Amino acid sequence: MKIGVGQIDTRVGDFEGNAQKILSACETFVRDGADFAVFPESAISGYPIKDLVFYGKFVDQAQRVLADLTAKLPLPALVGCPRRCGGSIGFSNSAYWIENGKIAAVCDKHLLPNYGALNDARNFDSGRDFCIVDFGGKRIGITICEDIWTLPTIPTASRYEYYPKPLDYFASLNSPTTPQAKKIDLLVNISASVFSSQNDTVRHAGGLLCEVSKTVGAPLLWCNLVGGNDEIVFAGGSMYVDATGDSPKSQCLEKFTECCRVVDTEKLSGFDGDAFDFAGDTDIRKALVMALRDFIEKCGIKRVLIGLSGGIDSALVAALAVEALGRDRVIGVSMPSKISSEHSKDDARKLAENLGIEFHTVSIAEIVAATESTLAPLFAGRPRDVTEENIQSRSRGLVLMAISNKFGALVLTTGNKSECAVGYCTLYGDTCGGFAPICDLYKTEVYRISKLINKEAGREIIPQNTIDKPPSAELRPDQKDEDSLPPYDLFDAILRLHIDQYLSVSEIVERGFDRAVVEDVARKVAGAEYKRTQYPIGPKISAVAYSADRKIPVAVRRGIQ
Length: 561
Known about the structure:
CATH topology of the largest domain: Nitrilase/N-carbamoyl-D-aminoacid amidohydrolase
Shape: elongated
Low-confidence stretches: 270-276
Radius of gyration: 26 Å
Number of domains: 2
Structural class: alpha/beta
Helix content: 25-40%
Number of strands: 20
C-alpha cells in the first residue's frame, strides 16, 4: 500500500483553514499515487480544544466543515474531529474514515488522558466499540493517540488498568489461533502526542512504537500532530513500523516540520530524518523556536519586544525570536539604571548588532528616582531593601508595556525555570509579558542552548562575555545570583528532583544533598507559588512544566519535608 501521511500543523478553531490543509495534502497524495491518507488527532478542530468543546456550536461548526470536506476529498482519508455523542459528557474525540464522498466509519478515542498537560477525560466520553475498516482487501484497525500507550513499559499505562484497551483487543485478533480473515493487516494511530525531552526519548530512542507493532503483530502507522498550541508542543516525527518492530525496517517524517509524504509499505521509502534518535539540545531548540513561531502567528501578532539586559536569558530569548520570526519582527530595548554595568549595556548592544534587530536604549534612571522621591515620605525611617531593587524592575516593566501598547509589539518574558521556581524575579516587573519562551528551561539548560546557537551558527550570536560572566539581576551594586541562590549546577539538580520528580526534602537529602540547602530551596519554591500562577504561559519542554503540569495550592506552609 501507499499511504499519504499528513503531518500538519493545525490551529485551534480554524476549521476552514485546517480543512484546506487536509484537502491540499490529499490532492498532492493523489498525484503521488497514494491509496489513502491519514491526518492527526482532531485535525479539523485543532488540538487541544479544552473547554471549547462545551460550546456546542464549536463542535457543530467543526462537523459542518467535516461534512463539506467529506464531499471534496479526492481519495479515502482518516480525519480527526470532535462530535456530539450520547455519553455523560456529550462529546467524543473521534476519527472519521471517509471514502467515496461519504463517512464510512467512526472511531471514538477510548483512553482519555487526565494527567499533566492533558485532560481529555474532562472534555470527552470514552469510546465503547473498537473500529476496523475494510479497504483494498486489507483490514485496518483504527486508534487515537493514548489508545496505544498501554504497554507495561509506559508509566501512565497503570491509569487504564480497568479499561478495555484497544491494543489488547487488536493483539488478540492477531493471535495465532485467530482465523486469518479476522486478523488486521495494519494498525493506524492518529495522534497529538505532547513533546517533552523525556517523553520523546522514551517514544523514539526507546523504541515504543516498535514494541507496539510487535505486540499487535501488525505494521503500525503513527501520524502525529506537529506545531505549538499555547504551552503545548507537538513534535511530529510520524512513523511507519513494520510488523516485526525492527527499527531498520521503519521510516519516519522529520520532527518539528509540517510535511506531507507518501510511504510505500512495500519499499519503506520516501521519508527523511531519523526520529529514533532524540537530538538533545538541538531538538529542544527546535521545539522552542516552533512554539514561539506558532504562538505569534496563530495569535496574529506582528512583532515582539524584548528587554535586553545584557544577560544570558534575554539574549537567548532574542536569538530564538529572530530564528522563529526573522530580524525585522524583533525589537530589543536596553533599559539601564544608574547601577547598570558598562559591560551589560555593551553586551545588549552587541547582541542586537549580531542579530540585526531594531534596538533602542531607554534609561530608567529618572523613572526610578521619581518613584523613590514620591515614596520617600511614606518610607521615611525605613532602610533600603529589596523594595528599591524591585522599583527598578517594575520601571522596566512600565517602559516595555508602554512601548508594547504604542507599537503593537508583544512583550516576551525572559525568565527561566530555575529563577521562577523560587521567585527570583519581580512580579509586575521582569515577569510582565504575553509569552515566556524559556520558562521551562533550567538555567544550566539556558547556557547549553546559548552555546549551541553560537556553535551551529559558526559565529558569535550571543556575546561570549554574556556566556562567561557571572549571572546577575543588577538590581544593586555588584549583585550576583549566587548571593541569593546556590550555584546553578547544584540548584538545578535539587530543583529537578523536587519539581520534575516530586521528591520531598528528606528524599532529596537521601540522595546526598545538604539538608539546610534543600530545605531553603523547598521553602522558596513553596513561597513563590503565587508568582508562578501569574506568570505568562510558555512552551512545555520538560516532564513537569509549571503552567501545563504542576498543580500545587498557593497557600502552602512550606516545602514538602
